């Protein structure tokens, strides 16, 4: 005859304590003494009891103790991109304090049957700069769970935003002040599946808040300087060092006289610099290159040039988003909707210099 499975109630009876005390030993340790909790846990192990069933607890409380973080890329991206690693550290710092778990939900999935299906059971969402019309994003919003958006335009939701437009204006103005006029832009795609070479005069779909804000910041600076938008090329590519290399190669083939590349991430900038070095173009002697993020690149060592970039506080973005979701009211349309602005800062490094006005002989960084 199979032995009866131990339960919270049976353990409470065996130990002569209340059911609530046993429950708190697992779910709210701060509500019981350390000695009592250790006694309960030790006894539970002797009767092969590993804790309350998560599914049963979820049915009882209406919560599963996890939040979903949705982001545009494949799962591996979250473990290799310096910004996302730091952003997730910010989220996890709050989750550790609150006893919550994180479910990563990548929006790029090679399995077409799973790609647009939202199956994870969570208590709420953090949307990290996704494309607005992605089916999974629309599914997440339709669920009506508490949701906080980061670098995403959603007036009815709590949000954490960086001053992207102002920072790109400042960064491009820095290059213009150095005399540069032959400037091109390297960006991640403005909408899913794109990878075109455009100009600043072209229309950009309102799919990516980050791309739209940074493009508008560039436009602001060029407009003030009287530089025609139609003369500024914009190359879309995947957000990686390889993407930056290929974009820089493409742009320099189209416009060999370029003297500056404005990249929308540090990863893209490092890739662009790598191509310039391979092509014998000194940075910044022959061509200036700028980035955006201001974070140490994952696994990158040995670079002697400090990148001219915009330093954004990815850790604070993640932390504030998690605080709103777990400690505030991130519910759609709720009275507790919060708008948090995280200010970034322009960092002048070694990869931008006065415009090149003649044949480059040697130079820095090549």
From TrEMBL:
Keyword DNA-binding annotated: yes
HTH lacI-type domain residues: 6-61
Database matches in CDD domains: PBP1_LacI-like
Keywords: DNA-binding, Transcription, Transcription regulation
Keyword Zinc included in the entry's annotation: no
PROSITE patterns, per database record: HTH_LACI_2
Highest rank taxon of the organism: Bacteria
Database matches in PANTHER family: LACI-RELATED TRANSCRIPTIONAL REPRESSOR, TRANSCRIPTIONAL REGULATORY PROTEIN
Molecular function as annotated in GO: DNA-binding transcription factor activity; transcription cis-regulatory region binding
Protein's name according to its UniProt entry: Transcriptional regulator, LacI family
Matching InterPro entries: HTH_LacI, LacI/GalR-like_sensor, Lambda_DNA-bd_dom_sf, Peripla_BP_I
């Amino acid at each position: 005859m199979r032995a009866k499975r131990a339960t919270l109630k049976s353990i409470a009876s065996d130990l002569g304590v209340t059911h609530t005390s046993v429950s708190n030993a697992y779910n709210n340790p701060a509500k019981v003494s350390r000695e009592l909790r250790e006694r309960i846990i030790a006894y539970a192990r002797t009767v092969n009891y590993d804790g309350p069933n998560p599914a049963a607890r979820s049915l009882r409380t209406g919560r599963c103790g996890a939040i979903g973080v949705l982001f545009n890329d494949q799962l591996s991206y979250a473990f290799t991109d310096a910004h996302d690693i730091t952003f997730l550290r910010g989220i996890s710092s709050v989750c550790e304090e609150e006893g919550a778990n994180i479910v990563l939900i990548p929006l790029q999935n090679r399995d077409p049957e799973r790609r647009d299906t939202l199956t994870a059971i969570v208590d709420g969402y953090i949307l990290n700069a996704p494309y607005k019309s992605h089916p999974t994003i629309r599914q997440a919003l339709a669920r009506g769970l508490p949701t906080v958006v980061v670098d995403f335009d959603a007036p009815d939701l709590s949000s954490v935003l960086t001053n992207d437009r102002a920072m790109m204006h400042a960064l491009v103005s820095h290059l213009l002040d150095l005399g540069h006029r032959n400037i091109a832009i390297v960006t991640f795609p403005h909408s899913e599946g794109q990878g075109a070479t455009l100009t600043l005069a072209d229309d950009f779909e309102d799919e990516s808040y980050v791309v739209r804000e940074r493009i508008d910041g560039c436009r602001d600076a060029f407009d003030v300087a009287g530089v025609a938008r139609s003369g500024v090329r914009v190359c879309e590519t995947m957000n990686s060092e390889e993407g930056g290399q290929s974009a820089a190669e493409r742009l320099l083939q189209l416009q060999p006289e370029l003297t500056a590349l404005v990249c929308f991430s540090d990863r893209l900038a490092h890739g662009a610099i790598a191509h310039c070095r391979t092509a014998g173009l000194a940075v910044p002697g022959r061509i200036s290159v700028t980035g955006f993020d201001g974070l140490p690149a994952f696994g990158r060592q040995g670079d002697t040039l400090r990148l001219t970039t915009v330093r954004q506080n990815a850790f604070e973005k993640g932390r504030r988003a998690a605080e709103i979701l777990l400690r505030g009211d991130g519910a759609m349309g709720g009275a507790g909707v919060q708008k948090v602005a995280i200010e970034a800062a322009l960092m002048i490094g070694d990869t931008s210099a006065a415009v090149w006005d003649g044949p480059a002989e040697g130079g820095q960084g090549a």
